[in-house]
Amino acid sequence: MDTAWQRFKNNIPLRRFVVLLLVIACLYEMRAMMNTILLTFIFTYVIVHLIHLVQRYVPKMPTGVIVVVTYLIIIALLYFVITVYLPMLVGQISKMVKSVMAFYESNESLRLMSYATHYISKAELITQAKRAMTFAFHTVTNIGTLTVATFMSLILSFFYTIELEKMKEFSNLFVKSGYFKWLFEDLRYFGKKFTNTFGVVLEAQFFIAICNTALMMIGLAIMKMPQIIALGLMVFILSLVPVAGVIISLIPLSIIGYSVGGIRYVIYIFVMIMIIHAIEAYVLNPKFMASKTELPIFYTFLVLLVAEHFWGTWGLIVGVPIFTFLLDVLDIKSVKKKSKKEVIK
């Protein structure tokens, strides 16, 4: 038995394959917490990357100062969104609701309803109304869940980065342990590889978000929309979510556009969003991802389609990193190594 166990530990490819299966199984069991896990990883990666970037130019800058200043900026942005942007959005929604109610009470709406019920049965209308209510309920629930996950992720990433050196020292104790040392070495091996691939894709998505925001702000400026800076900030944040982020921004932009120029502006914004979405999905996303990961555009686009089908929005975020990670682990294609300072250890 000891001989078989020793052979297993010495067989590095088999050992790492088993460890990878264990990691996948653990993540599957923790799938209910996947929002928190992925958001914590993203926030931590960005902050650690920022720490090393600042310390490259200001070597004596303490890590704690950088982290505290960064999170104060994040809190200030959240305060701006809650106190300035949300009231503006609520005001636009109330105006839109009043307009809909006024239309509903008009004679024109009665003629439209009678015309619709002539061709559509009441049972079908009730079914569609139930589906719409269910969709709205699930949307509100998902937004609430994502909000809680985001705040928890910010708190976890703050505690990780504020004690970055202590976290590294404590984590290294597992690798130096006498028991299951090989397990923690393999976990560190996979962690470094995934961090490297995920960082490459995150940089690509950042450039895509900049392009989306620039195109959107140009269109909004032509339409003479109010609060272009605030709207641009919202589009940039949502654009960090691949493909789906641009579509999500359609809802608040349409509400504000309706209050400014009526249904005509809503149509303009819808067309503009669809054009930008097409540019992102068929040009920017495959091109930037392909250039950063050095994958052919066909494979990059195919991975995005398959990942979105199985994992939804998160598939668009982690699909390419996971595919590139597997290529690296299977020794099919290695990813360009980042410097040690840019990798979360």
What can be said about this structure in brief?
It holds the Pfam family AI-2E_transport. This protein has 14 helices and no strands.
Task: Describe the protein's architecture and organization.
It is a single chain. By secondary structure, the protein is an all-alpha fold. 85% of the residues lie in helices and 0% in strands. It is built from 14 helices and no strands. Helix 8 packs across helix 14 (313-329). It starts with a helix and ends in a 16-residue tail after the last helix. This is AI-2E family transporter. InterPro entries: AI-2E-like. The chain crosses the membrane at residues 36-54, 66-86, 143-162, 198-222, 228-253, 265-285, 297-330.
Give the topology.
Elements: H1 2-10, H2 12-29, H3 34-57, H4 63-105, H5 107-119, H6 122-162, H7 164-175, H8 181-222, H9 228-239, H10 244-248, H11 250-261, H12 263-293, H13 297-311, H14 313-329
Helix pairs in contact: 2-8, 3-4, 3-6, 4-11, 8-9, 8-12, 8-14, 11-12, 12-13, 13-14
* Helix segment tally: 14
Summarize the biggest pleated sheet.
Answer: none
Return Rg in Å.
Answer: 25 Å
Structural class: mainly alpha
Approximate shape: globular
Proportion in helices: over 70%
Kindly give the count of domains. Answer: 2
Uncertain segments are 339-345
What integer is the average pLDDT?
76
Q: What is the CA–CA distance across the termini?
A: 34 Å
- Tell me how many strands there are: 0
As a percent range, the share of strand residues is under 5%
Family: Belongs to the autoinducer-2 exporter (AI-2E) (TC 2.A.86) family.
Main location: membrane
Membrane topology: Multi-pass membrane protein
InterPro entries: AI-2E-like (IPR002549)
